[in-house]
Amino acid sequence: MTISKFTCAAFLLSLGLLTGCGEKFLEEAPVDQITDANFYQTQQDAIQATNAAYSELTKEGQYNSAMWAFDIMADNSVTGGDDGNDGIEYKQMEAFSIPSTNFVVNRLWGGSFIGVQRANLVLQKVPGIANMDPAIKSRCLGEAQFLRAKFYFDLVRVYGDVPLFTTPPATPAEVNIPRTPVAQVYAQIEKDLIAAIGNLPGSYAGADLGRATKWAATGLLAKVYITEGKKAEAAVQARSVITGSGKTMWANYADNFKPANENQNAKESLFEIQFVNGRNEYDRNNVGSSMNEFFGPRGANQTPGSGYGFNIPEPDFVNGYEAGDTRKAASVWVPGDVFPDGKTQSAKATGSPYGYNVRKWFVGKVNTNIWDSPLNVPVLRLAEMYLILAEAVGSNAEGLEAINKVRRRAFGLPIDAASAKDLMANVPDFTAAVLRERKYELAFEFDRWFDLKRYNGTQYGLIPVMTAQANYLKTLGITRGIPTEKNLVLPIPQSELDANPGLKQNPGY
Question: What is the annotated signal peptide range for this record (predicted)?
Fold first, then answer.
């Protein structure tokens, strides 16, 4: 059983005090009369409160909608779907013409701050619970620290300066605070993850499988450091995971994305978003993933709703796979691929003029209902730790060996074989090699925009890469936007600006 099945994981714990944080919070209401006045009394209360802090990860504000945009805003994919206003929020992001009322912009902000405040409640209330197993108390606090860091990592990368809450606000004055500078937000993220590493166990079993571990926190800290440009610190954390976690890479890349393997999600994954099916609902705020349906080939009748065809791989992305790279077959559908029912992928479909679709999150009609796939989404994998280490140390022997472990697996070789295919064949230098491996290893895992953004100011940054991309697509008759400096962050939601006079909009929006 996974986290999403925990009892009471989804109820909202007395968040009425958050009214000034935005109108979306006002729409949330407790499903019973539990309040923080009569809750937080027992160990089970602490566990349920911690479970609630996880629940935003499976909703529209995170991995069931908002995070999808960060491949579409990069050079991996375009929106797809039908014509007209189908997927208009993603089309706005693809065009880099993003209003402050954009659905994705609003949901990511609102959902992330709900997650932050649930974590804050745990950190404020759980220390005072008497007669609690010290190991469980430490674990709950570590999980909350990890989750607060994760939500703030998303917020600060997307919006830049954001309000920093480390305790639940109790008065309007505590709610309506201004934005905190990026450096201070990152300092808090680092502090939370270092504390979480000390509080969390190294592994779980049974019903607790899927909770954040010390290795999840260590891996996220490595990713935070590499994002900040702290390469020496990132290398230390990545090495710690590689040598100490006991994780191993699946021999076959595709095995990372099979529901049948989720009872082993501790094998290569450091942290996964835990999805389950069975609710049989058209609702992206439940515990099932909707990506099987939304990303499935449109009208191909391979999913319960026949497929919507969103998030279409771009032609040069597909053509950029090297010969023999097994990640291609695991990640994308191309014309002629055979579906489970024996039909084949079309050479052209609505929203996909070249016949490409995302395959990585495909489950088909087996063990799923409507927008209700059980396939987990890995957020941190051991393979990424090797790539972070390679990026951090450069093209010395350690860096080359780290990137080659990932490449050997990609080309069907044992990861401990003597060599990999020539990683420099299609790239000018080692930095380009690492970014290229990240592009294909982590394809459609929603990292690409962040990778391009953190190389802003270089030839590998968002603006030059996407300018070249737009010019190339124009030759194919595909139009997409070209980002400017303002697009290195997204707009602050208009509803938040209206609710909190202390907030200021990002420049250019």
Answer: 1-19
